[in-house]
């Protein structure tokens, strides 16, 4: 069986008997069809509905469903003309007939009868769903609507009939009900049946209509469109989602459905002695006497040796092909695979039976009318040693270890000759995760630098097959993209150096993706300590259901489908961080928000290891549990596990100095070299290494890599970046040339303009920079504020303190309350040693307003320095460096202050670090009259 698809004009459900026509019939509509009002196309405009008529009528009689469709659509534009100009009417000939009643074009008061002009439908004898692994037997009748124009109305009436012998005289049908915001000038749905037929019907929407009896038939008529369905929260179970359809069935109970389906799955005599299948049974028996092991072997045979292909031909929507045919053809759908698996299990003396399931609407089944149409899947329920096993031949990768896992199908129907009641599947947590991630992060170079990663990702089940297939069929770039997506989820931003796929031998049912490369550091400095999140469990869980609307208060939360992941991370720490400690929960609650959790963590000999397991079994969380679950999740998230580096972990500049001295950066640089060598034409890889080289103060190396990146792919950002590096080493003439090149590529960039103006000042032409900035400021726009900051800086370089301060005063009038402007005014006053009392107020205001006030703290330290308040200046600089470790300006000033306070050793350390990070810093501060 397959999920049902409902078209607006023709509804095709369970196919039926053979011997119906394989070519369309041309006949008038049957007498029972209720007539519709005439179609008026004289007053159409752009506000008219697309559907002028949407008339769907069904009659159920003698086990047959006759579906009549009468649709008239307005051809509103060229796109609709292209789509509607080719009429397509699908039907399943072994289930019944396609009957064409009429095809016409209505143009104003003209009615152009295409059939009267000799037009005929052509039948396409192609499997229209073969790409979806379906041989459904559906044929498609097509007709080119010759002469159709934009503004015309295309009017088509047609019928399909169907009768399925597998239902043993019963009938079932589903009819979609148009709902707003779809519109129709005339719309209705009619269901009719003989007065003596015990037909049950149900709508999942509120409708006013009730059946009436006339001429021996009961008729239910529903006016369309219905009101717009009520909104539902996205995490609501499917049974709460509004279904706009009408369902009807002649089945009187689920037990009858079960009994009617039972003959289709009889296995007696389906495996003949001496046949190939009998040999497989003998092989399994010889391999093991354990029933559970035998069941796992039989399941693996069906999953691995028979590919999936739906076969709905020759009455096959419910009737499975024989086990011998399935084994010979080596393909089959869920029906065929289930019957094959049942035959094997029965030969192995394992108690088992088929069960019907709905893969998408399983939780709605108990509320539906009894019918086979409630299901779109069939699998096997087996009993082994008192344990219930749910065995699905259409899956892949199931093994003995996880054979007891449960599918999230909600409520199912066992199939047996005596009939059966519905059964709800009792969900269990899966025995294995879908995904295992094993990561080693080599952080020995330091917590501020990229980590060398070595990742092994183990995929199981269907995902393993998808990954294996993608790997086999993909080229090198596609493999790279696959690995980057998978690794990125495990380690974040990364560069790939090596990749491979391992297919373990034996019974694993897995594939393992291996990758090595560089990952961005996960450490951040907070509260004067380096910290790294270690959580791969609680962070994956969110529980904040939206039940604000009164109508939603009693709706449960649907949990994720069964599955989960295990992430094991091993972090090799630098010698300076071996005193790392843990904060947060080293142990997790056994369950949280429906998930089963487990955590193991260990720190030993400079290696931190953590393993997090998160498993879901599906199911729901009831509304009366929401408050407790929400509180538990919030508590867990407030205590997420972190690694905390020791308080005496060296500052970045100290790690850079020692790293360059002892060669600990070599493995990182070797990996960058491998990445570049593998793809030397990728500019981004040179840029990535340039970023690292700049971070460790190898300015010439960074510039050389940017040379390569710009040669391969010049961008404004890269020119600007190289200009900044050249300025850092004092090569301002070259920097100016790069800034001008950047402006040619991006003349509207505020950042480019700002750097260009500054470089004009640095190379002896400050007025040119001022003119450039002033001209842009005069144009107005969002970039006025940042450019006024640049202008004030240029004025201060010229010693024009009043003009510089006035420029920021104007900016604050335009943008009051901006912390960056208060900081800039404070900085100008402090560096120019004017208005220090008000400067202090400006900086304090900026610090109060800014979430990350490192710059303002640095500026206030300058003011305190000018005022001779060295202790206060030192305190602010320490705070600034806690927020922004390695900031050269703050280190330089702290060195100056240490020197003034007599701490020559601390001064020398800070000044050396500042000079390493910004070689021209002495010259920059000499401009303010500040020298060591």
Q: CATH top level of the largest domain?
A: Mainly Beta
- Taking all residues together, what is the mean pLDDT? 92
Largest sheet: 9 strands, mixed
Number of helices: 26
Q: What shape does the CA trace take?
A: globular
Which structural class matches the secondary elements? alpha+beta
Percentage of residues in helical conformation? 25-40%
Strand runs, count: 38
Domain tally:
4
Task: List unreliable stretches of 5+ residues.
Answer: 1-19, 126-134, 312-316
Radius of gyration: 37 Å
Strand content: 15-25%
Keywords:
TPR_rpt, 932 residues, eight-stranded mixed beta sheet, alpha+beta, disordered N terminus, nine-stranded mixed beta sheet, DUF3857 domain-containing protein, globular, 38 strands, Ycf3
């Amino acid at each position: 069986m397959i999920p049902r698809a409902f078209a607006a004009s023709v509804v095709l459900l369970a196919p039926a008997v053979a011997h119906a026509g394989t070519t369309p019939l041309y006949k008038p509509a049957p007498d029972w069809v209720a007539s519709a009002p005439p179609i008026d196309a004289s007053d159409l405009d752009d506000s008219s509905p697309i559907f002028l008529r949407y008339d769907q009528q069904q009659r159920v009689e003698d086990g047959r469903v006759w579906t009549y469709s009468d649709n008239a659509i307005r051809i509103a534009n060229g796109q609709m003309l292209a789509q509607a100009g080719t009429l397509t009417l699908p039907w399943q000939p072994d289930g019944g007939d396609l009957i064409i009643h009429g095809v016409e074009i209505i143009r104003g008061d003209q009615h152009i009868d295409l059939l009267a002009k000799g037009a005929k439908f052509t039948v396409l004898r192609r499997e229209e769903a073969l790409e979806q692994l379906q041989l459904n037997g559906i044929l498609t009748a097509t007709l080119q609507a010759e002469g159709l124009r934009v503004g015309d109305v295309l009017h088509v009436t047609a019928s399909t009939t169907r009768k399925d012998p597998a239902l043993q005289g019963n009938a079932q049908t589903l009819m979609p009900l148009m709902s707003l915001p779809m519109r129709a000038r005339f719309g209705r749905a009619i269901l009719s049946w003989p007065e003596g037929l015990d037909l049950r019907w149900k709508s999942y929407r509120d409708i006013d209509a009730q059946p009436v009896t006339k001429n021996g038939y009961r008729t239910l008529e529903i006016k369309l469109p219905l009101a717009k369905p009520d909104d539902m929260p996205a995490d609501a179970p499917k049974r709460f989602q509004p279904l706009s359809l009408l369902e009807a069935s002649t089945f009187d109970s689920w037990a009858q459905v079960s009994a009617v389906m039972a003959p289709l799955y009889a296995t007696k005599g389906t495996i003949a002695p001496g046949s190939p299948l009998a040999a497989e049974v003998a092989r399994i028996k010889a391999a093991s006497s354990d029933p559970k092991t035998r069941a796992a072997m039989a399941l693996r045979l069906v999953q691995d040796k028979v590919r999936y292909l739906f076969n709905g031909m020759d009455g096959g929507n419910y009737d499975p092909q024989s086990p011998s045919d399935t084994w010979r053809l080596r393909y089959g759908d869920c029906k065929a695979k289930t019957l094959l698996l049942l035959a094997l299990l029965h030969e192995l003396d394992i108690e088992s039976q088929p069960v019907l399931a709905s893969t998408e609407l399983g939780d709605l089944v108990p509320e539906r009318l009894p019918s086979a149409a409630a299901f779109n899947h069939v699998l096997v329920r087996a009993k082994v040693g008192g344990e219930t096993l749910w065995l699905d031949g259409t899956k892949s990768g199931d093994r003995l270890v996880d054979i007891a896992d449960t599918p999230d199908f909600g409520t199912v129907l066992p199939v047996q000759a005596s009939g059966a009641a519905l059964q709800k599947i009792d969900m269990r947590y899966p025995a294995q995760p879908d995904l295992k991630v094993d990561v080693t992060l080599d952080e020995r170079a330091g917590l501020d630098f990229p980590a060398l990663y070595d990742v092994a990702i183990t995929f199981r089940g269907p995902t393993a097959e998808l990954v294996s297939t993608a790997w086999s069929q993909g080229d090198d770039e596609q493999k790279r993209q696959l690995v980057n997506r998978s690794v990125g989820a495990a380690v974040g931003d990364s560069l790939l150096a090596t990749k491979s796929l391992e297919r373990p031998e034996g019974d694993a049912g897995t594939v393992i993706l291996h990758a090595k490369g560089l990952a961005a550091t996960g450490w951040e400095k907070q509260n004067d300590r380096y910290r790294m999140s270690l959580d791969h469990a609680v962070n994956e869980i969110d529980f904040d259901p939206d039940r604000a609307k009164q109508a939603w208060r009693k709706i449960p939360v649907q949990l994720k489908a069964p599955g989960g992941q295990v992430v094991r991370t091993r972090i090799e720490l630098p010698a300076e961080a071996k005193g790392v400690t843990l904060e947060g929960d080293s142990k997790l609650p056994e369950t949280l928000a429906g998930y089963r959790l487990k955590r193991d963590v260990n720190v030993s000999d400079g290696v931190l290891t953590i393993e997090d397991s998160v498993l879901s079994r599906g199911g729901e969380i009831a509304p009366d549990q929401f408050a407790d679950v929400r509180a538990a999740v919030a508590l867990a998230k407030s205590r997420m596990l972190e690694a905390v580096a020791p308080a005496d972990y060296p500052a970045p500049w100290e790690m850079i100095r020692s790293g360059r001295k002892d060669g600990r950066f070599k493995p990182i640089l070797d990996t960058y070299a491998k990445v570049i060598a593998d793809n030397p034409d990728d500019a981004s890889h040179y840029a990535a290494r340039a970023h690292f080289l700049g971070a460790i103060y190898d300015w010439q190396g960074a510039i050389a890599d940017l040379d390569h990146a710009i040669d391969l792919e010049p961008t404004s950002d890269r020119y600007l970046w190289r200009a900044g590096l050249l300025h850092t080493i004092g090569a301002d003439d070259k920097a100016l040339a790069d800034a001008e090149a950047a402006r040619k590529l991006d003349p509207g960039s505020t950042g480019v303009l700002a750097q260009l103006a500054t470089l004009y000042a640095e190379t002896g032409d400050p007025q040119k920079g001022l003119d450039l900035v002033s001209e842009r400021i005069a144009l107005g726009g969002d970039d006025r504020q940042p450019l006024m900051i640049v202008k004030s800086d240029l004025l201060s370089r010229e010693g024009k303190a009043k003009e510089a301060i006035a420029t920021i005063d104007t900016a604050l009038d335009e943008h009051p309350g901006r912390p960056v402007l208060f900081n800039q005014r404070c900085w100008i006053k402090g560096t120019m040693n004017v208005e220090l009392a008000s400067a202090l107020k400006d900086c304090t205001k900026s610090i109060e307003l800014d979430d990350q006030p490192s710059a303002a703290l640095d500026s206030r330290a300058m003011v305190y320095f000018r005022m001779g308040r060295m202790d206060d200046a030192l305190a602010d600089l320490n705070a600034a460096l806690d927020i922004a470790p390695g900031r050269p300006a703050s280190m330089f000033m702290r060195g100056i202050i240490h020197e003034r306070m007599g701490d020559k050793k601390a001064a020398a350390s800070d000044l050396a670090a500042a000079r390493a990070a910004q070689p021209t810093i002495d010259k920059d501060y000499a401009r303010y009259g500040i020298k060591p």
